[in-house]
Amino acid sequence: MQTKYPNGEAQTKSLKTRRKILKTARKLFRTRGFEKTTMRDIAHESGIALGAAYYYFNSKNDLVLEFYLKTQKDIESRSLAIFAETRDFRKRLKLLFDLQFQRLAPDRKFLHVLAREASSPKSPLSPFSGRTKSIRDVNLAVFKSLIRDCTPEISGELAEMLPSLLWLIQMALIFFWLHDSSRNQQRSRGLADSCTEIVVQAVRLYRLPLARHLFKSLNRMLGEVMSGL
């Protein structure tokens, strides 16, 4: 006989089960690897039936996408606290890149394995796939918040273009960070600082026709890539 719960209690139980599955999957992906872990393994370790696991997540990919989304929402929440402390564009961007590395560090080994899967253009885990659009949207919202009310002021066309370009730089930095064998990934942090300085200088030069043309060309190129997804 199926146990019945009041609506609120049922929702709480469902949420706890969902979180437990996700936590277990994250642990197994870390220890066994993404490819070797099965949904059956996840269900067994979670102490639930396999059918129940599939009720919440259709596949391992769905678990990963949920992990991605929760991670980005956590970064979004933390970034707002950072942006409240300073309006300086350079400081905000540097602190955001640092936050990304810090938040992803515990799952670096797991993410390194996933990077191979996500590198395929047809993979639902690709950062450019249709399945990851909601995750991109959260990430872009972070960069829009970074730009909002910053100093120096960024507005108009530049404010519209910059979030997507910063997102692309961030993805390149994370990919480099995943493969960085230097101690505590110091090369990645140095590269992030260099990218920050380049972006700051480019923003300052935006008033010049050549710089505006470069920004617009990069933005158009990125738009063409994203429109083809």
What key attributes describe this structure?
mainly alpha; 229 residues; 2 domains; elongated; Tetracycline Repressor, domain 2; Arc Repressor Mutant, subunit A
Identify the CATH architecture of the largest domain. Answer: Orthogonal Bundle
- Reading off the top of the CATH hierarchy, the class of the largest domain is best stated as Mainly Alpha
Q: State the helicity in percent bands.
A: over 70%
Pairing-aware structural class of the strands and helices? mainly alpha
Unreliable runs: 1-5
Distance between the termini: 47 Å
CATH third-level topology of the largest domain: Tetracycline Repressor, domain 2
Total number of domains:
2
Number of helices, counting only DSSP H or I runs of 4 residues or more: 10
Kindly estimate the percentage of residues that lie in beta strands according to DSSP. Answer: under 5%
- Using only C-alpha atoms, the radius of gyration works out to 20 Å
**Main sheet characteristics:** none
For the secondary structure, the number of strands is 0
pLDDT average, as an integer?
87
Q: What form results from the Cα inertia axes?
A: elongated
Secondary-structure element string: HHHHHHHHHH
Structural account:
This protein has two domains: 1-58, Homeodomain-like (Arc Repressor Mutant, subunit A); 60-227, Orthogonal Bundle (Tetracycline Repressor, domain 2), CATH 1.10.357.10. Helix 1 (7-32) crosses helix 2, helix 4 (60-85) runs antiparallel to helix 5 and helix 7 (133-147) packs across helix 8. Helix content is 74%, strand content 0%. It has 229 residues and is mostly helical.
